[in-house]
Specification:
Helix 10 (202-215) crosses helix 11 (223-243). The protein is mainly alpha-helical and 247 residues long. The mean pLDDT is 88. It has helices at residues 2-18, 20-40, 53-61, 64-83, 86-90, 97-127, 135-159, 163-180, 192-198, 202-215, 223-243. Helix content is 76%, strand content 0%.
Length: 247
């Protein structure tokens, strides 16, 4: 436990010095929340809707940090540590290399949780937003989406042969999901053709799940997203455990 705390403290400091996650996981979601609140205010999501456009978008905006940490941050840091032989060196020390992976996962989970709190605080303080659904159900869905997205990152980072390849794959996954899954560009304003393409992205299904939980919609609407999120988590985690490259 002491080794875990020490590594976590060091990795948090290194990550904060890089500033990438501060920008993409903390500042960007807050900026998107302010823009949506300033543009749409308390305007209904659609004619006759009982909730506002901002309320409809809260679940989506809360996934920006999850996407940044899981799909971009984790693959890059894992491949970088392997490329620098850090994972190999840890194998001959009392600190097992698996511990560093656990620490990195916790670091990006902390970013996601901080981002969620700040996004909610910004929406609540400046635009009067309140969660329409159940907090326990929303948080359960949020952690399911987090586990699913992080499993993708662990798989990419664990299998990519080098940092360059990991960066390329992470970029291919990250930017389309950031823009077209509904995390930044609202899903509801997309043309039907683009919505159909967005439905193929795993994060889109996670966002649908979080929207339903945050708005308190009926459980029947979240069955498919839950199945998809669970399937991705199980498959990607299994592949990363089976084929992970330590060196």
């Amino acid at each position: 436990m002491k080794a875990f705390k020490t590594l976590l403290k060091i990795e948090c400091k290194l990550s904060l010095r890089g500033m990438d996650m501060v920008i993409f996981a903390i500042l960007m979601p807050i900026a998107v929340t302010i823009i949506l609140g300033a543009v749409f205010g308390s305007r209904p999501a659609f004619e006759g809707a009982s909730y506002s456009f901002l309320a409809q978008s809260f679940g989506a905006v809360s996934t920006i940090a999850v996407c940044a940490g899981g799909v971009m941050g984790l693959p890059l840091v894992i491949s970088d540590y392997r490329n620098k032989k850090i994972l190999k060196r840890l194998k001959v020390t009392p600190v097992r290399p698996g511990l560093i992976l656990a620490v990195e996962t916790v670091v990006y989970a902390l970013y996601s949780i901080c981002s969620l709190l700040l996004v909610y605080g910004t929406a609540a303080i400046f635009f009067g937003y309140r969660l329409g659904g159940s907090w326990p159900l929303f948080l359960a869905a949020y952690f399911l989406v987090m586990v699913s997205m992080f499993s993708i990152g662990l798989m990419v980072g664990g299998l990519a042969p080098n940092t360059k390849t990991a960066g390329m794959i992470a970029s291919i996954l990250y930017f389309p999901m950031l823009i077209f899954s509904g995390a930044t560009l609202p899903y509801e304003v997309m043309p039907r053709v683009m919505q159909n393409l967005a439905d193929l992205m795993p994060l889109t299904q996670g966002i649908k799940l979080l929207k339903a939980m945050s708005l308190g919609l009926q459980a029947g609407e979240v069955f498919l997203p839950i199945v998809i999120m669970l399937s991705i988590a199980v498959i990607c985690t299994g592949i990363s455990i089976r084929f992970f490259r330590w060196e």
